[in-house]
# Entry
Amino acid sequence: MASILEETGPPRWRARPSGFPGLARIIVEQQLSVASANAILARVNEATDDLSPEGFLVLGEEGPRALGLSRPKIRYIRALAEQVTSGTFDFSDLGTLPEDEASAKLEALLGVGRWTAAVYLLFCEGRRDLWPKGDVALLAAHQMAGGSFGRADLKTFDSWAEEAYAPHRGTAAHILWGKIAFERGRAPL
# Structure
């Protein structure tokens, strides 16, 4: 970590809006390049009053598709918007829960897995001690810094990182994401 920080400088903490806009954005970004996600997000934000749940629902079934969203992502975000507008899911409850319970509550939502829940809690709730399991960019950054885990060792790396970086797992993740951005010649997200 020290050698990465010498090279990249201090990490830039990713802070995003919480609630529906934050989680919907993370769902849009799943498995997309930064450029593709940003292009889609710009269109979605414009069409939905900055990604409001009501604005998303007004688009109907095909409107989001025309903006570049895949059918699964439309289904996930639409289900989330319906739960938020009906009051069956309330983001304000997350702040009172410990990490594991907050993660489980998010993971109960359609289209939200462990990685998405961790990223939401890190970026949108400002939590500091979570490790986003399954993030291949973190493993790649670790390898770039001379780490010993190979590509096929992602689960082993995640287990190691959860122990090695506690109680600063989120900070370690941001340092590693900064390394990826540095190596690719772009500013951290």
Observations:
- The chain has two domains: 2-11+131-183, 19-123.
- The domain at 19-123 is CATH 1.10.340.30 (Endonuclease III; domain 1).
- The chain has a mean pLDDT of 92.
